[in-house]
Amino acid sequence: MGVILEVKNLTKKYGGLTAVNDFSFEIKRGEFLGLIGPNGAGKTTVFNLISGFEKPNSGTIRFDGKDITGMKSYKIVNLGVARTFQLVRSFKFLTLLDNISVSCLSSRGKRVAKSHGIDEYASTILASVGLVDKARIPPIILPHGDLRKLQIGKALGTNPQLLLLDEPFSGLSHEEQEVITDLIIKLHDDGVTVFMTGHVLRELMHLVPRVIAMHQGKFIMDGTPQEVAKNKIVLEAYLGKGEVFA
To answer: CA–CA separation, 80 vs 174, rounded Å?
Structure first.
């Protein structure tokens, strides 16, 4: 199982603020891991840098052996990296099917859809995220949980090898979190490498077998959820002094 993503000495500054500071880690193909830290720790900035929405001041990012540091986001998508965002955004007045179809027009998506057609490929994705029965309605009338599923579906339309999920449980009820959890587990079981952030720490820590912890842009530790949960710096800086697991 080779390395699919290699991040070395990644640094991002905004004026006098260093959002990501000399940050390094690796992800192996087929892994399922989480990135934790309090608000402002730099988690979303790390995702922005990997996915090409921002350029680092220094450091390197290699995906599947290729240097993608500072590459345009659409080129990174076409190589096999897709992501979701904390804020859910869609083409509000297009149907769900059309929303997914747009992402299927990426070069990797079109290769998969070639033998069946874009609409059929998009319908298959809608079925995989549990929304096929709502294919002909616009997302503007969907509940928040369904919008989260649609966002994951749009990322899947690009046929990713690596899926970055930024706060996929944000704003969801416990029941909605369970639905998204089952969906993420299925995606990973189907062979997608999954890297996710989360404020709903108890859910995330029960879900992933490996966790990277960061604080103020810096790498703190990398280990199993149990190891991270027992780390004194993690407990005091991120989670308070209570227990992670109920």
So the answer is: 31
